[in-house]
Design a protein that fits this description.
- This protein is of the alpha/beta class.
- The protein is 43% helix and 14% strand.
- A 5-stranded mixed beta sheet has the order 2-1-3-4-5.
- The longest helix is centred in the last third of the chain and has 17 residues, at 141-157.
Length: 213
């Protein structure tokens, strides 16, 4: 199964994304790694639909996975210049700006976001272009597809149909991951499965079987 082939940072980011989904927020997770020793020093997940006190951003439109991870990083003594941020979805313009402000060394993302993804902005504004900020998509199509499934189902369930409509016009069709996300929304099967709060590894295998029969 794919899970066993993922590095620890990707497993951590996916776990955060799954936790966000189970909590009713958008399924996006992030992990920040100290490149000097490979240790994960900060994590974050989307929490825009939550109001607990684990982050001052929770419950607001600012509670993106990357933002929550960056807040946790700021409370450590690790220099951001030594760190790579892993995120399951291409960062939006807000998160990319915060990543630059924090002086993060590099960014890896699992899945492109045709609507809000802002990797292209790293060299647009003069401030963004100050020094290198390598940002690239992981070379793992199955990982990206699994994120697509989660995002499509979650966007439909939370009333964000325009996002799905835009994505369908921006990527080649037919797309098995998008179709599976729509199907799982229609049946409610994925959301029902999430209410059992299975570990991320179990969810990952469950979804991979349905995506690659």
């Amino acid at each position: 199964m794919l899970w066993q082939t993922l590095s620890l940072p990707w497993q951590t980011a996916v776990t955060q994304a799954w936790s966000a989904y189970c909590a009713g927020s958008l399924p996006i997770g992030a992990a920040i790694v100290d490149d000097g020793n490979g240790r994960i020093i900060a994590t974050g997940r989307n929490a825009i639909h939550e109001t607990d006190s684990t982050s001052p951003l929770n419950g607001s439109r600012l509670a993106h996975a990357e933002m929550n991870a960056l807040i946790t990083l700021s409370q450590t003594a690790v220099p951001p210049q030594n760190c790579t941020l892993y995120t399951t979805l291409e960062p939006c313009m807000m998160c990319l700006g915060a990543i630059r402000m924090m002086r993060i060394k590099a960014v890896q993302f699992a899945c492109a976001d045709p609507l809000a993804g802002s990797a292209c902005l790293v060299e647009t504004a003069p401030y963004q272009a100050l020094g290198a900020l390598p940002i690239q998509q992981a070379n793992n199509q199955l990982l990206a597809d699994l994120q697509w499934v989660l995002m499509v189902e979650a966007m439909l369930r939370t009333g964000r149909r325009p996002w799905v409509d835009f994505v369908e016009t921006a990527v080649p069709q037919p797309n098995a991951a998008i179709e599976l996300g729509k199907s799982l929304f229609a049946t409610g099967e994925l959301w029902q499965f999430a209410q059992q709060r299975p570990p991320a590894q179990q969810f990952f295998g469950w979804l991979q079987i349905r995506l690659t029969p």
